[in-house]
Structure formats: C-alpha cells, structure tokens
Amino acid sequence: MSDLLWQKEGVRVDARIMRFLAGDDVLLDREFLLHDITASKAHVAGLGRIGVLGADEVASITRELDALAEDFRHGDFILDDTHEDGHSAIEARLVERLGDVGRKVHTGRSRNDQVLVATRLWLKEQLAALGDLCVAIAEVCLQRAGAESLPLPGYTHLQRAVVSSTTMWFAGFAEGFLDNAVRARATRDWLDANPLGTAAGYGVNLPLDRAFTTEELGFARMQVSPIYAQLSRGKFELGALDALASTLLDLRRMAWDLSLFTTAEFGFVRLPDEYTTGSSIMPNKRNPDVIEMLRASYAPVAAARVEIEQLLSLPSGYQRDLQLSKGSLWHGFTHGLRALDLMPDLLARLQWNEAAMRAAIEPSMYATDVAIEQAAAGVPFRTAYRAAAEAGSDTGSGRTPESSLAARVSPGGDAAPGLEILQQRLNGLKDMHRESN
Ligand code: ARG
C-alpha cells in the first residue's frame, strides 16, 4: 500500500487490519473518483481565491487533476488497493507529479467533506437519470394508452371484477411514473447542497470561499452547518433510495402483472423474444426471466435502505461506520436504474392477445355497471345491487366492453378527464428537463 496520509512515525500498520478497514471501499471509490476530482478542482480554485495557493500552484494542480481524470477514464490509471481510498490516491498522484505543491491540496479539507461532496455530486446525476427514465417510461405508456384500446379484465383480489382496458392499464402506470419523476426531481433539489468546506465536521480556520465552490460545482445552495453536513450523511442517501424505491414499487407491480399475463392460463401478453430465455433441460420452455428480474430489482434497493438506516445509530460527528453506506447506495442505484432502463423498449413492444382478453371478460363483470345505472335512475343503490347479484351471469347480456368503458371518468373512458391531462403533465416535465439542461 502507498504511504498512508495519516501514518505516524514508528507505528506499524497491520495489513490484515487495513484490509478490514478498507474492505472494498477503495474499489467502490472508482465510482466516485471523477466526482472527487471535480470537487478537488473547485477546492483548489477556492484556495487560490483566498490567496492560500498561488495562481501557478492552482494551475499546476488543476492540470494534474485533469490528467488524472483522463488517465482514469482511459484505464491508464487504475484505482486499486495499493491506495487506502480514492481520496488518498488523488493526493498521492499530485505529490508524485508535483512534489510539495501536491502536498498543499488537502489544505482546509478533510476526507470527511470530500466523501460527502463526491457522493452528493454522484447522487445528483443518479437522480437526474432516474427522473429521465421515469419520464421515458411514462411517455411510452401514454403513447400506447392513446394508440389502441383493447378490453382487459380488471381484477380485484386477483378475481375478475369489472371491465378494464389496455388504455386504462397503460394510463395507470403512466401516471405512476409521472409521480415518480416528480419525486426524483424533488429529491434531487432536496439534496442539492454543497458540503465542501465543512472539513472534518467543524469547519476550519480559513476564510474558505464556500459560495464560490458552491457555484463552481453547480450546487443550488451550501450546507451552512458543518455539523449538519456530517449529520446528513446517510440521511440524504436514504432520501435518494426512497425516490428510487417508490419507482421500483410501481415497476414491481407492473412486472407482476406481466408475469401473470404471459402465462398460458391468462395468455394476454406476448413478450418480445429477446426478453425471454430458454431452459437448460426443458426444450419447450420460453421463460420470462427478464420480467422476474425486473420484479426482483426492488429487493436490493430495499436492502440498501435497511443497511444504511441500521448504520445511522450514531452520535453526531463523523464515524467510520458511515463508510459502509457507499456500497449499499451504489448497489441499490445500479440495480434499480439498470432495470428501469429496459422498460421503455419492453413496453413499446409488448404484444396483447385481444382474443384471449375478450374471452376472459364474462357477462357478470357488467353487474356493477347495471346496478349503478339503475341507481342513477333513482333505484336505491342497495336494491339495484341485490337485483344485479341475483341476475348473475344474465346481468351483462347485450353489453360490450366498449360500452362499459365509454361512460367512465378515467383515461380510457369517454368522459373527462382523459389522457390529455397526463399528456400535459408529461409535457411540463419534459419542458422542465429542457430548461435545467
Ligand atoms: N472511506 C471513508 C468514508 O467513506 C472516507 C472518509 C475517511 N475519513 C476518516 N476520518 N477516516 O467514510
């Protein structure tokens, strides 16, 4: 391992203990290294503005930081366990290239605010990606909701209940993913605050230009209290995972529907071939593995939430326990976003089996319509309800799914509100996205 930033004269470092402390942290730091470098550049520029570094020093450190980022992107610099962590690797590289000038980079900062700022920058990108994916999924759902409307049984308790339609199904998920997009954006705004300059958690005796680094790094505001900057670690990660988890809850229910709809028993949906796999032993199988993995994607996100929450039983101030939040966070977001990324294409190419869906709509599913129509004409609802129940499968004779749907106040029904309202929300989100880019 390269020299430790904090090593004391004459104290032996035990490799086994170091491995325990570092765990896979240094490998995880690969995910955050570019953000750490970006924040390091802002820090150094800020030190230049208050005269702690000369203009030449700022220029040479910045040049070497850029070179390190380039080398890292091209695989010419590999972050591995020859370093304690990514923060140490940055400083080691600057010292190797610039000697004493490199030894100045850490003036007025701590790895404690370094890890916070890198994580917040990283999460802002992840949440932007989450919001974009939610918008893309909502858009495909809305497009399909508007393009055709086929009858589909509506279930409660997994029992046939009333007539629904593919339009209603798609519109339902469209609205869900619009909500998720709004939540991703709100969460991004919530954690859009700069912790850089809070150092180890108590500030430093330098007039750091925190407004400058805030602006330079594109944060909306600064975290003013150094103590809160540390208290918020784990908490802002949980907030981000909440936004992801609520999205994946919708995805899980959608995947469950598709998992049922693709069985021979339902037979409502055919998946595109690429989204199915075969069996190693049963030549006849066409398995919906992708749907199952989409459904499973909620689990690592929920697990990440639990793990971070468990870590947060801590007094104030930085504690090394917090290091473990990084892996969970990365794992949760990586799984979650990969799953969501498949959805626009999959949804665009789902094939409905109209004959099977029509066949599954039995006459008794009009009973609610019949009772409500009579109630609207003045019969007490409970009386009309009993009459419809007694008529059993005769209730629906002469009715069609189309006539049942026409009177609904729902996207997919003819009465307002319709798909336009969802389309307007979608357009609004896309405009906001364009403005913020
Ligand atoms: N890997 C550490 C973490 O994620 C970086 C901060 C280390 N700070 C310290 N005082 N040991 O928390």
TrEMBL record:
Biased composition (Polar residues): 394-403
PANTHER family per record: ARGININOSUCCINATE LYASE
Protein name: argininosuccinate lyase
GO molecular-function terms, A-Z: argininosuccinate lyase activity
Known catalytic reactions: 2-(N(omega)-L-arginino)succinate = fumarate + L-arginine
Fumarate lyase N-terminal domain mapped to chain residues: 35-296
Pathway named in the protein's UniProt entry: Amino-acid biosynthesis; L-arginine biosynthesis; L-arginine from L-ornithine and carbamoyl phosphate: step 3/3
Family to which the UniProt record says this protein belongs: In the N-terminal section; belongs to the lyase 1 family. Argininosuccinate lyase subfamily.
Organism field: Oleiagrimonas citrea
UniProt-listed Enzyme Commission number(s): 4.3.2.1
GO cellular component terms given for this protein: cytosol
